[in-house]
Design brief:
The structure is a single chain. It contains 23 helices and eleven strands. By secondary structure, it is an alpha+beta fold. Strands 1, 2, 3, 4 and 6 form a five-stranded antiparallel beta sheet that branches. A four-stranded mixed beta sheet has the order 5-10-9-7. The protein is globular and about 115 Å long. The chain starts with a helix and ends with a helix.
């Protein structure tokens, strides 16, 4: 019933903001066009003076955090959206309507068990930013340090649970009704997203994520992460250092201070590859509302990251597989790409490598030797999706966050430096990473890491060797006993079979003799062929057994 009510609300919002107008210029099947015309509200609810972008933004805000996050991701795709839509959806990044300031202060005091006057020298009850899951207030500690306080929206958990229940229902319908649904694993994808979004509701996890990335980039000229104040952090309240930077999407301000836009874009790509391949721990919510640029050194700009509620991590196998795929793409070795997909099990083992290679080439070849502004990665992804359907490629849920982050990186690259060559920027990094992972340095590093364990276990080696030899001896003794038992059993079976065959021989002889009961001596002379056969078989069986 809750899911049904949620569906009704979505339909009501869809009608109120006349989102059906988005489909009027889209090529649809005849039955879809008919369904569109049968929507009765079209004839009673006027479109009004609002633009399409504003109506879509308001609808997403009303539907809640999951839909707002979808709008945030769309806002970075300027190649897929009109200027009106992109500018309106950009407001979802930090201009979501806030909740009451008095309620926010109450939540902070309850979480930290003290009045704000005791906790902070200054506290601004008016939020400085508001997003889908939380809002942020500025404050000043008594030691003079500026901080920001992040507070989870009240009741947001219930809304998310309702939306997730609806998404699970839709995912199961896709698996049931769509032939390609099971291959795309929609339920697994929704489950992965559920874990991610519920992690955002515990700000202690976000604080831990931020601390980890801060350590990974400590003293790095590429990325700065604000300090976390753990003494003032709880499940629904997070206090961290306040930063003063330029929002990465504010191109005018960046250019006004003579920021090296090319270097800024290239360093963004380097940060991404460093997080994914060096650290296997990456910021997975890199929309422009969470990324700033330091004002200190425009010639060598440094990024500042906030909001670490969504992070991703890859296994060593995933890292190696992705790096080899990227390098094969950069080198246009489509046969290697196809073979890697087969070897990893992403496509069936009986896939025709040559056909798969040709399909990949037709999708990927057009993207090379072009600046980023001329490449539509949306079209490339659509082409790859069609290729995946043809070759039964399975969706890998563990890579969903990585794919989303790649989309965000592309959107940022378009805004900062449209001529950026994403491949040329990333290739040297991956080549260095592969050499470090597979070369002599990697072997030395592995030995160095394991040496303490080896030294710790060295005194135990004699006992371990004795135990191993004793175990082998016991295994040999057990094997010999088993073989002896099997031999005895085999002999018993052979004796039993021999006994049975002897009885068969006796029966055959008795039957041969019984063919003539009147005169046995005469029977031996006139015995028919069947009698001689039975007698011969009986004699042979008795002699052999």
């Amino acid at each position: 019933m809750r899911r049904l009510l949620r569906i009704f609300k979505i339909a009501r919002v869809f009608a109120r903001y006349r989102l059906d107008t988005f489909f009027e210029q889209v090529s649809l099947h005849w039955y879809a066009r008919l369904l569109l015309k049968l929507m009765l509200w079209r004839y009673f609810i006027p479109v009004g003076p609002r633009s399409q972008g504003e109506r879509l933004r308001l609808a997403l805000e009303e539907l809640g955090p999951i839909f707002i996050k979808f709008g945030q991701m769309l806002s970075t795709r300027r190649d897929l959206l009109s200027d009106d839509l992109a500018l309106e959806l950009k407001k979802l990044q930090d201009q979501v309507p806030p909740f009451a300031s008095a309620y926010s202060q109450q939540l902070i005091e309850e979480a930290l068990n003290a009045p704000v006057e005791e906790l902070f020298a200054e506290f601004n009850p008016e939020p400085m930013a508001s997003a889908s899951v939380a809002q942020v207030h500025e404050a000043l500690l008594y030691n003079g340090e500026e901080v920001v306080i992040k507070v989870i929206r009240p009741g947001i958990g219930k809304t998310i649970k309702k939306d997730m229940a609806l998404l699970y229902t839709l995912a199961r319908l896709v698996e049931t009704l769509w032939a390609e649904g099971r291959r795309l694993k929609p339920v697994e994808v929704v489950a992965d997203y559920e874990n991610t979004i519920f992690d955002e509701l515990d700000l202690r996890k976000e604080a831990a994520n931020g601390s980890q990335i801060r350590r990974n980039f400590e003293n790095s000229p590429l990325l700065y992460v604000p300090e976390i104040y753990w003494d003032l952090t709880r499940q629904n309240v997070l206090v961290m250092e306040r930063i003063h930077g330029i929002p990465v999407a504010d191109i005018e301000q960046l250019k006004a201070q003579n920021t090296d836009m090319k270097k800024l874009a290239e360093q963004g790509v380097e940060i991404f590859f460093t997080q994914v391949f060096r650290d296997s721990f990456f910021h997975a919510d890199m929309h422009p509302g969470n990324i700033f640029v330091s004002r200190e050194n425009p010639a060598s700009p440094q990024y500042i990251a906030v909001d670490f509620g969504i992070v991703g991590s890859l296994s060593p196998e995933d890292q190696s597989y992705l790096a080899r795929n990227f390098l094969a793409f950069f080198q246009r070795d489509y046969r290697q790409v196809a073979q890697l997909h087969i070897d990893s099990g992403w496509v069936p083992a009986d896939t025709n490598v040559q056909s798969f290679e040709t399909a990949i080439r037709s999708v990927c070849e057009p993207i090379f030797e072009k600046p980023l502004k001329d490449i539509s990665f949306g079209m490339v992804l659509m082409g790859l999706f069609q290729t995946a359907r043809r070759f039964n490629m399975e969706v890998q849920p563990q890579l969903v966050l990585l794919q989303k982050t790649l989309l965000n990186i592309e959107g940022l690259g378009r805004q900062l430096y449209p001529e950026l060559d994403l491949w040329q920027t990333g290739q040297p990094f991956l080549e260095r990473w592969m050499k470090e992972r597979m070369g002599p340095k990697a072997a030395y590093r592995s030995i160095k890491q394991q040496a303490p364990d080896w030294l710790d276990k060295m005194p135990q080696l004699p006992q371990m060797a004795y135990d191993a030899l004793n175990q082998l001896k016991n295994m040999d003794d057990t094997r010999r006993r088993d073989m002896l038992a099997m031999s005895v059993a085999r002999q018993e079976l052979q004796q039993k079979a021999s006994h049975q065959w002897r009885w068969v021989g006796v029966v055959c002889l008795v039957a041969a003799v019984g063919l003539s009961l009147d005169d046995p001596l005469l029977a031996l002379q006139e015995l028919p062929a069947i009698g001689w056969l039975l007698g011969g078989v009986g004699a042979v069986l008795l002699l052999r057994h």
